[in-house]
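4.2 Preliminary Data

To establish feasibility before requesting continued support, the project team ran the inverse folding procedure on a target of 354 residues. The structure was first converted into the token representation described in Section 3, and no sequence information of any kind was made available to the design step. The complete token record follows.
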């Protein structure tokens, strides 16, 4: 959908503002009417997304809107990365008659605050994407989680790196010391995905018997622009010593690529292996062009759909899994699997974002 050529960061920003255009100027958007009747006739589900201006979450949001269409009145709010604002939105959603809540926390530690509000009115809460502590989820019978097993993405990314390194190390081990010198762009600190990916990717590469040197690790807050800035600084500082760029998500991988391009990479034989997570369409394009080694599919479509399906069932007083094929694990979580994506199986990524 996003046809970027040059000026990637700019086009990403433009693309996400196009996606956001429907919600422009307001912080709430509802699913549009379908043939089946007005939204207001449908059971109300109150939802928040931690910020609309997050590349991956914009795909989750779209999937939620599609799943809600004609089934529930989805009152969807942009929490604008502000936890206090989100708490106010939850108050408003409850006041407006939401029968269940679908919450993408700003701060993963704020789950209890949301539960305290919902519990008073006996309203079920489906958290998604930012996993609350298991103990908090356990504390409220009507609380659930839809997301992934965070560590899995780090393990798959690590395996991908190890395979690619083994196959290319003659070229990629630039200083010939047999070790992999990397820089790592971390997501939001404290975010279960960011913490797990950062730990498991490196652990996995090492387990595969590859020695590593960490030249730099810092947060790019999931954000392309911030990642470009970081990468600019790292290229200036480490230049030729960097042999691999590991990013906790594709947004930051794309930001790093923009920086690397400025520094002359990806033309002639100047190359840098870059990996991300999410397998969003913009990243799939980079994989096809050979500017990204691979990514790990974070299934936005299924996570968005599952969130709305559980929330709709809950709002209707049904078992949350009724009519679905999802399963809950011991921590009342639906976990959608990650899939390693390279050029070889890129169609899986494309299909997931269709
Ligand atoms: C992660 C995703 C990131 C970012 C984050 C927001 O699962 O990989 O790109 O969207 O969620 O919480
Ligand atoms: Ca080396």
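Position-by-position output of the design step:
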């Amino acid at each position: 959908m996003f046809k970027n050529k040059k000026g990637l960061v700019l086009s990403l920003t433009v693309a996400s503002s196009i996606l956001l255009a429907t919600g422009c100027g307001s912080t709430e958007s509802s699913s549009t009417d379908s043939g089946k009747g007005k939204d207001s006739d449908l059971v109300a589900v109150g939802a928040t997304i931690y910020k609309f201006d997050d590349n991956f979450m914009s795909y989750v949001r779209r999937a939620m809107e599609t799943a809600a269409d004609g089934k529930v009145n989805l009152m969807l709010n942009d929490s604008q990365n502000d936890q206090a604002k989100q708490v106010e939105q939850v108050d408003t959603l409850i006041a407006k008659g939401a029968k269940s809540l679908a919450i993408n926390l700003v701060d993963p530690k704020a789950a209890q605050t949301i539960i305290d509000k919902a519990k008073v009115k006996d309203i079920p809460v489906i958290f998604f994407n930012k996993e609350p502590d298991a103990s908090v989820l356990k504390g409220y019978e009507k609380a659930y989680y839809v997301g992934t097993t965070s560590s899995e993405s780090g393990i798959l990314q690590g395996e991908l790196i190890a395979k690619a390194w083994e196959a290319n190390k003659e070229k990629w081990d630039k200083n010939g010391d047999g070790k992999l010198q990397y820089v790592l762009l971390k997501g939001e600190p404290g975010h279960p995905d960011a913490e797990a990916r950062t730990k498991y990717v490196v652990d996995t590469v090492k387990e595969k018997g590859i020695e590593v040197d960490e030249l730099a690790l810092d947060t790019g807050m999931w954000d392309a622009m911030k990642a470009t800035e970081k990468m600019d600084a790292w290229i200036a500082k480490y230049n030729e010593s960097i042999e691999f760029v590991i990013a906790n998500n594709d947004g930051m991988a794309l930001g790093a690529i923009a920086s690397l391009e400025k520094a002359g990479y990806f033309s002639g034989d100047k190359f840098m292996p870059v990996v991300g997570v999410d397998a969003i369409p913009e990243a799939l394009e980079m994989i096809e062009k050979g500017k990204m080694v691979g990514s790990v599919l974070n299934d936005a479509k299924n996570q968005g759909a599952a969130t709305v399906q559980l929330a709709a069932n809950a709002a209707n007083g049904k078992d949350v899994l009724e009519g679905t094929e999802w399963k809950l694990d011991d921590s009342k979580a639906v976990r959608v699997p990650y899939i390693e994506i390279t050029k070889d199986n890129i169609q899986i990524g494309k299909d997931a974002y269709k």
